[in-house]
From TrEMBL:
NCBIfam families: DNRLRE_dom. Gene3D superfamilies: 2.60.120.200. Residues 56-145 form the Disaggregatase-related domain. This is Uncharacterized protein. Residues 323-481 form the Polysaccharide lyase domain. Pfam families: Disaggr_repeat, Polysacc_lyase_14.
Length: 504
């Protein structure tokens, strides 16, 4: 496989998926892999009881939110600050000294994903309503007051505030109040900017006009969604020995590799759906395309249609035995016009459908077929915190699913949120289960960092089902057609018997 070195120096060093903090503008020493444009918000895609980002099911590890306490313990009980809010009449102004937490954010010791306010479990507590940043009473909105060593003061309003209530599936961040109780926790995030002066004191002030049942002890903890806790090290694989994948097809563990450079690239594949709208290109300036390595496959979702690409590597047709485990890596770039606001859809993955079951509402029963395609979620058009981001996941048909399959959000660290106009390494792994035993495995990585792992999947009840193909599928919706023309690009596809990893 021969690749051009055109614009090679621009490719992996572009800004985009930088190691930055969500919400701390001066904490470069903390290594957190998130898109530059992402900050934990409180809009339509904001946190709920189940998800830290509602778009694409980016789930908390524990329902109700994840936190780390002042001792550094995940789900610990040692709050950074605790304050008792009494049951009373009239307005109450309540303060928490959060100096140590804010100082740690400014020093770059922790990623700033916000503070989680919660009551201690097992203690008799009531319910407290606090004014939020959307409150019509501007004087009662939350504020973080910072006192600096040079005598100056800063007053910050929340960049986001919401509460997590497990009776609601939607974000509550645009409500005029936030509630805290034994069943509800509050999340507040402040954008911090470090100054030359040292922080002397930080005080969080909330205002309550309503309390119910009894007094309430409320502690402040550090919010810690999965992307803030996972290792940020890139996992290298066999690709590390091949600059820009050149010669990787000669590796004995590689089954197939292509960069779409050949004018007859279609002959390398086992099947190409005739309705696919895909072609190998080297230029596409109108959509801000920049080559990854020579030519790439451009796939268009045309307005009013669903299918963009149906391209398959069929192991048996290629003269290879159908495996029971396989790694598959490709490079992906969403174009400038990519905006899936109407519905989600399907992306490349791994399958054994045998044209019988495991896709399109054809239920998998463990004997007829299965699939784990990639997926993308719809993007709420009104939420600026996720503008130009796409939430990735997997859409799987296995023996424990219903007719419509399961969607698994790529919610581990780093988050599966991909920006437009940036190349990403996307890798997936499937190991089929022992027939009848729930020990099947699926893993996914973005840029060499794991974003999902499942280890108890029941793909099959018979060894007659194996890995039939790698399925390069781009499809909008279930039935909803694309609301506008949308484009993406694919390059450097590799299928192998061991982990591949990003290009050198």
């Amino acid at each position: 496989m021969v690749h051009s070195a055109k614009e090679e120096s621009k490719v992996l060093n572009k800004p985009g998926y930088a190691l930055v903090l969500a919400g701390c503008l001066a904490c470069a020493s903390v290594v957190v892999a998130m898109p530059d444009s992402f900050l934990l918000g409180d809009g339509a895609a904001g946190p709920t009881c189940a998800n830290y980002v509602t778009m694409g099911g980016m789930a908390w590890s524990r329902a109700g939110g994840d936190w780390v306490d002042a001792a550094g313990t995940l789900y610990g009980d040692q709050a950074f600050s605790t304050h008792s809010v009494p049951l009373g009449k009239g307005r109450q102004i309540e303060d928490w000294d959060v100096t140590e937490l804010v100082r740690a954010w400014l020093d770059g010791r922790y990623p700033n994903a916000g503070m989680l306010l919660r009551v201690k479990p097992g203690v008799k507590n009531g319910v407290v309503d606090f004014h939020s940043r959307e409150s019509p009473d501007a004087s009662a909105r939350p504020v973080l007051k910072l006192q600096w060593s040079d005598g100056s003061q800063t007053r910050l309003s929340p960049a986001a505030d919401t509460y997590l209530d497990c009776t609601s599936l939607s974000s509550l961040g645009e409500k005029p109040s936030i509630k805290i109780s034994g069943l509800q926790s509050a999340l507040l995030r402040f954008d911090l900017k470090k100054t030359n002066a040292r922080l002397q004191q930080a005080v969080l002030t909330l205002v309550s006009d309503m309390q119910y049942a009894s007094g309430t002890d409320i502690g402040v903890y550090r919010a810690a969604p999965p992307y803030t806790r996972m290792p940020a090290n890139t996992l290298t694989g066999l690709a590390k020995d091949y600059a820009r994948d050149m010669g990787i097809e000669k590796n004995p563990d590689v089954v197939f590799a292509t960069g779409f450079e050949s004018p007859v690239w279609l002959t390398e594949w086992g099947y190409f759906g005739p309705r696919s709208t895909a072609e190998a290109i080297a230029e596409d300036a109108a959509r801000r395309f920049e080559p990854f390595s020579g030519r790439a496959l451009r796939v268009r979702l045309v307005k009013g249609q669903n299918l963009g690409l149906d391209l398959r590597y069929l192991f048996a047709k290629g003269g290879k035995p159908e495996p029971e485990e396989i790694y598959f890596r490709y490079y992906l770039r969403f174009a400038d016009d990519w905006n899936p606001y109407a519905d989600g859809g399907k992306m490349p993955g791994i399958a054994g459908t045998y044209d019988r079951a495991g896709w399109g509402m054809r239920k998998s029963d463990g004997y007829n077929g299965w699939s784990v395609r990639g997926g993308f979620a719809p993007r709420p058009p009104v939420d600026k915190s996720v503008a130009r981001l796409t939430a990735m996941g997997s859409y799987s048909y296995h023996a424990d699913t219903g007719e419509s399959g399961d969607y698994w959000g790529w919610n581990e660290g780093p988050s599966g949120l991909l920006e437009n106009n940036r190349w990403y390494s996307v890798e997936q792994y499937v190991k089929l289960n022992t027939p009848g035993v729930r020990d099947g495995v699926f893993r996914a990585w973005i840029d060499g960092r794991q974003v999902l792992e499942k280890t108890t999947i029941l793909f099959r009840h018979t060894r007659d089902l194996k890995i039939e193909n790698v399925w390069m599928n781009i499809y909008h919706g279930g039935t909803t057609p694309a609301p506008q023309d949308m484009t993406l690009y694919i390059d450097n596809v590799v299928i192998a018997r061991r982990y591949i990893g990003p290009v050198k």
